[in-house]
Amino acid sequence: MTTATAPKSLKPTFPSAGKRIFNFSAGPAILPEEVLHQCQQDIWNIAGSGIGIMEHSHRGPVFDKVIDEAVADCRKIANISDDYEILFLQGGATTQFAMIPMNFLSPETSADYIDTGVWANKAMKEAKLFGKVNCAFDGSKDNYAHIPAANEITLKPEAAYTHYCSNNTIYGTEFTSAPKTSTPLLCDASSDIFSRPIDINKHAMIYAGAQKNLGPSGVVLIIIRKDFMAKGKQGLPTMFSYANHAKEGSRLNTPAAFGIYVMGQVFKWILSNGGLEGMFKKNIEKAKFIYDAIDNSGGFYKPHARNDSRSLMNITFRMASEDLDKKFLKEAQALEMDGLKGHRNTGGVRASVYNAFPAAGCKALAEFMNDFAKRNG
Ligand code: PMP
Q1: Which end is more exposed in the chain, N or C (fewer Cβ atoms within 10 Å of the end residue's Cβ)?
Q2: pLDDT 10s digits, 236-285
Q3: Residue 162's Cα: distance from chain center in Å?
Q4: 64 is catalytic
Q5: How far, in Å, is the centroid of ligand 1 from the Cα of 199?
């Protein structure tokens, strides 16, 4: 007769804790250490169930609790009322570029797009597949170096909605407040979600791919006002209707269960670290180390973003030549600072310092920058 106890090989065997280095990657990006430790445990056995989080049914009580808590904590973080639905979808932020116009735009209607960078531009291009588009601001003229003032944005009162991207990951520019519109405002907040206080009520919809400030890639957070969602087209393929996902509590099909779980853990981490005010305060202090190094370098470091448009999340700069940029990156790598290479559209250096990135890493980079400028200036 055999007994039903687990074989000895099912003992937890966590990898030995190797050292970690400063990860300045633009995304997928650094996650909070506390969250990673919790993941290690819960991948093995979550909530004493004897089953790991990736192995649980998405319709069982353990996952019910995970997703319910994630929704509740998300509401708490940004004070999101019941007027809004919170959804966890798949397909990355890029799928949202198409799903938004698929739901809310038609050949007879038009939408306003504020083009402040590659991602905003991609969103606008997708919309053109479904209806008319008014480019309300064209930032390409200065290679997306600034966030437009209100008088640079030309909105149409008849627009079905206005779309903007709150933080331009590639260029390092960021809106400090939502643009004013009379039409429903939609925001791609993939690279600065929950990094500062946000007025949800100004928006009809906010969406964010998880892999920068919220968790692993493969899950997208959607915060959508119910009355706006109700305007979505009927007769769409099942998976492309927000209303369908809402009806099924983000479980129309098998969701990105592990990603949702990690996002939930990150929400708890945000709440226990001062919430959005706490994140914002820390992010200002962190970014200041690096912007000070740029500003005090006597022109050695040339920032891409205009001063009034600087992002707290992605800090972009270059030096006098590509050779110097390369030398900088090589030396930084030797000092265990990874992921600093700028995007091909801007070149140079990009330091991505999302919520989970430690102040010590910003300080270390600033010290290296000062030293490098002295030696090479
Ligand atoms: N929007 C922004 C602002 C981004 O930074 C990115 C990815 N870097 C995307 C959208 C696209 O996200 P995904 O790869 O999840 O489709």
Answers
A1: N
A2: 999 999 999 999 999 999 999 999 999 999 999 999 999 999 999 999 99
A3: 20
A4: no
A5: 21
Output the domain CATH number for residue 191. Answer: 3.40.640.10
- 50 and 107 assigned to the same domain: yes
Query: What DSSP line would sit under 65-114, residue for residue?
Result: HHHHHHHHHHHHHHT--TTEEEEEESSHHHHHHHHHHHHH--TT-EEEEE
| Active-site choice (212, 268, 282, 286) | 212
pLDDT in tens, 326-367: 999 999 999 999 999 999 989 999 999 999 999 999 999 999
d(CA 324, CA 348): 9
Number of other residues whose CB lies within 10 A of the CB of residue 40 = 13
CA dist 283 → 16, 60, 104, 197 (Å): 31, 38, 35, 12
Q: What domain range is 368 assigned to?
A: 275-376
Residues 46 and 178 grouped into a single domain: yes
Pair 69, 59: CB distance under 8 Å: no
pLDDT of 376 > 90? The answer is yes
pTM of this structure: 0.96
Known catalytic residue at 42 = no
C-beta atoms surrounding 49 within 10 Å? 14
Does the active-site annotation cover 11? no
